[in-house]
Amino acid sequence: MPPPDPTLSPFTGYTRAHWEATADRLLGALLPYATPGLAQYRLPGRTGHSGVWSDGVEGYARSFLLAAFRIAGSGGTGAEELIERYATGLASGTDPRHPEHWPPITDRAQPMVEAASIAIALHETRPWIWDQLPDDVRQRTADWLGGFVGATANDSNWRLFQVITEEFLASIDAPHSRAEIDAGLARLDDWYRGDGWYTDGDGRKFDYYNAWALHLYPVLWSRIAGHRADRGLVRTHRTRLRAFLRTHQYFFGSDGAPVHQGRSLTYRYAATAPLWAGALVDATPLPPGRTRRLASGALKHFADHQVPDEQGLLTLGWYRSFLPVTQPYSGPASPYWAAKAFLGLLLPAGHPVWTAREEPGPVDTGDHRVALPAPGWLLHSTAADGIVRLVNHGSDRLAPPPAPSEANPHYTRFAYSTATAPETPPGDEAAGHDNHIALLLPSGPSRRGRIHPLGTEDSGAASWHTPLSADGTEHEHAITTVSAVHGPWEVRLHRIEAPAGTLVREGGWAIASETSRPTATTGPGWAVTIRDDGLTSALVALLDRPGVPNAREGEVGRGTGHNAYGRYSATPLLTAEHPGGTLLLATLVVLTADPSVSSDPEALRDGTRAHEMPDGTAQVHFPDGTVHTVPLSR
Fold first, then answer.
1. pLDDT of amino acid 546
2. DSSP letter string over 28-70?
């Protein structure tokens, strides 16, 4: 890596040269795993559910996307090896007689995903690769990509793979369906929920696919379509992107970490792709120095945590290899969708995103609360420790009823952050007890499945859910939860319906370390766990007191190999016996690395109060004296 430049980049030290060096390292590390004809990259690691053949194509397609940004960003200069490498692979992969030929594009099959990456890469490198290919290779490529025409894609972000691929076919005068392109773009409109937020298919499926797919592909489609693109539609897409970036900037901690929520987290810094996309098409509200600070911050964060690994590879995980952040479709080359983070290389070296001095991100400048009503989220961040916390009262990644309800640790926890990951115990990843409230049923702890939002505003958010048994059976009663936030603190108020004698267990933030077990202390109505570097998770009961009915006992749950942030994890817990009927619990939930924030449970309890008021509201007093009033009724 080049030396840091603290003058141009006072927050990260990173410049364009660091992005180019990282791209070169990633691309160079793949070569030992290339097949002889360069049409596939067969990397070490777990095979995806589509099989080794498909995984190899994934390695080619996703790394070609990275190579394309590197080639185009340099104007082809010094990129001769990359140009030859990917042109050769294209010729081999599209030849049905070649032993490395690619599987055909068929309904809902993984090659649909990879075809879109190849189409984007071919468009962005058109002068250096496509225009120089022999006619027979171009025809074979068009034939292979043409498998998309008339095929059925999954009704999600996959519809945009069809849009991208068939628009590229249109650009080379190959057979395509304008009706399929238009239908895919129209489906995107169906999923728009306002304020820059799309759901990834019907339901409440909010995650980073909004960033690295649903906003990114319309920008790339317009580049491919050129004069064929409807100008009004392009303006609409860019207006929505601008709206999204106004709040997306709040998802990054001061150390560059993105909030750890949702699926496909092994794509890591791909979460920065829309930052570059906004700059690429002049659809961003962010100053150029902030765009680079946020994007470079994420790149540096993972580099500081040994990503890529010592071989230069992106593994299936977050920092180290960790399969629970992946899905069954994830193969060894899946993490290379991280290539989307390098979109900024398409901007010339003289563009202000590369020449402007880095400006602070939101978390660098002060404490913030940001309400996101569309996904049902509330962000609260603190400048003193640089942590961003996401309170979740709206995203469950479930299809609409009558589709069954189910729990997912990356969607149905009450909160996520830039400093923590949810617990994902082996064998039953949904069984973690962090940021969760459970009825301890004979079949095991209940889960939070379908989330029913009740509202999100600047100081609080609320939802209700029907607890699920481990086998997916819905409990006959409900839990309504209201979150009030301020600074590093969250007060959760739960109204719980359950039979008398049912045990109720609540969990706070899970913190994890790769090298040592977090310390733990507990007492009546409280539990605290602290990592060696001072990161602290505390859980303190507010409405109940020792010696009165339903007082909660504190304990700490521990895990080994349960957490993406480190091998050893710990979660503060509180347990009470339900008296029957309706029980109201109030709990202070703390995640902080600020040494000035008290972790003394008695001081926290004395400084924090929650009072149920006659008008159906609760008055919440935070440790610094701030008071919020939140509704309690459903």
1. 53
2. HHHGGGB-TTSS-B--SSPPPTT-HHHHHHHHHHHHHHHHHHH
